[in-house]
Amino acid sequence: MGRADALKPSRHNGRHPPLPHAELPVNTVSLARYLIGKILVREMAEGLASGRIVETEAYVVGDAAGHAYGGMTPRNRSLFLERGHAYVYLVYGSAYMLNVSSEIAGIGAGVLIRALEPRDGIPIMQRNRQIERLRDLARGPGRLTAALRVDYRFDGLDLCREGPLWLGRCDHEPGEIGQSIRIGIARDANRLLRFYLRGSPFVSGPRLLTE
Question: What is the pTM of this model?
């Protein structure tokens, strides 16, 4: 798929069946790679909006950069749920981050969803972001949550069940997956725990990390 083709809105308007828990790897790094190419679906009053996941970051067990590092608290308890649940938190007082719990119940770790390729409901996402440029609708973790109106209400939600937000199947293979260090962290910063779809114009971050 060329760059111009990648920026065209999807013609797919069907529903994406949720990924069952049994199909999710019980391993944070494996899940971060597995989610590349899958679909994040948001059901809103205006209709269905979705995006193909093109970038993730793994925050593994014992990771000093992860929110579960100091143990379970009332705020991070969703990271300790069975794999496939949402963990949502706020940064800089304005941007929500969407993560997926990634281990067995009681073990804290997660996968940050960093970027989406918009597919369904693009006009809805454009209104939510108040921008029209397709490439920038969901290119970054705060942008994608704004485009899909994801906030604290979704913390702890089962993402393997159809509802207001879920992880769905995709109708084609994701393509070549790249790997690099994570973006914007200071602790455990040199670990190769960021995964992305090579060649996708929707991937976020410095260009040198996607080549």
Answer: 0.91
